Hints:
The strands form two sheets. The chain has a seven-stranded parallel sheet, with helices on both faces. A six-stranded parallel sheet has the order 10-9-8-11-12-13, sandwiched between helices. The protein folds into two domains: 19-174 and 349-369, Glycogen Phosphorylase B (Rossmann fold, 3-Layer(aba) Sandwich), CATH 3.40.50.2000; 192-347, Rossmann fold, CATH 3.40.50. It is elongated and about 65 Å long. The protein is α/β, with parallel strands linked by helices. Helix content is 41%, strand content 15%. It contains 13 helices and 13 strands. Helix 7 (202-217) packs across helix 11 (316-328).
Amino acid sequence: MATEETIIESPNSATAIRPLIVSDAETVGRFYSPLRHLLFGFEAQGIQSCLVLPPNSGIETFLWPGIDVIDYPALRLPLFIRQNRRRLFAHIEKFGPSVVHCLGTSRAIIAKIISRNFDIPAVLTVNSPYQNFLMRKIIKSGFSAIVASSGRFVENIKKLNPEIADIVRQVSTGTFVDGTCACFSRPRQLPSMVMVSDFLKFDDLEPLLSAVRHLAVDGYEFVVVLMGQGPAEDKIRHFVKNTGLSQTVSISPVIRPLRSVLRGADIFIQPHITERLDPAIVEAASAGLAIATDCNNADNILQNNQTAIFFDGKDELSIYSTLQKLLDDRQLAVRLASAVQDYLRSNNSVSSMVAGLLEIYAQVSSSCAG
């Protein structure tokens, strides 16, 4: 089970802070665990929060009583824009927020409208430094702070958007780290590897699938679980079937909570170059899996041969050699898995995440009042 560290109340944490969290269904689904941890942290601090989400966002699967959720838009028809807006504002006025925090950029416009209407500051969490021209224009005005999850993201955002560099802040994704290390903790069980993907392009996954096939041909016994859905799924299934990997590779949608699946695995594979924070990596690291990832994903959490092991995601041989190394040297795999858990305990606690956001809320509220 995860070690839920005590979230110490700060004498400066003002109970007057009432964050209104605005987000979308995709962000809720992808950032399921970090959002739950954030809400848990707010509650532990005595901070009352409220969520503005589209209907059927899936939030109800992991909420507990006492957290308010406003459905917006309640009526999904263009003719009801004004009615939806009036209903939204009426619910928000009843809650009385002190700050609006938009998670992800897709609802940045409505977050700014709420900010202006209620004369409260707006904060935006950006999950990728790479935005299209229109979105970059939207986020360059109306927000008092831009939040990113790692030093690399902060640097990239500042580089791509120098006009807002002075309001970009880093708040690391908080997590509860398991008290045990899952990696090769079940000696009688076949080694297992997990990958979570959007299955966007078959070409992006073919080097990994080919590496897995060659490991199986060379006599290695293991299982691989590919979790996700997307346009390339049919080609992936066709490859698995035609190469005789049906007994080795299984494909399924992402299972929630993801941590429950990861605790039964040994190695987490991320062959993509991630242009945004991958919360699945944080969950895998928290559970104590050895992380094997593309070398371009180096960041605060992932350091080659320290907290993870890198490969070239476009090079089948590189992937093969890396996975072979982890299968042959279990002590190395366990060492990497334990090291990344230690890193998260020191740098990515839920208490630190909550404290960082509360500090930003207090700063932007003070600036707005001044």
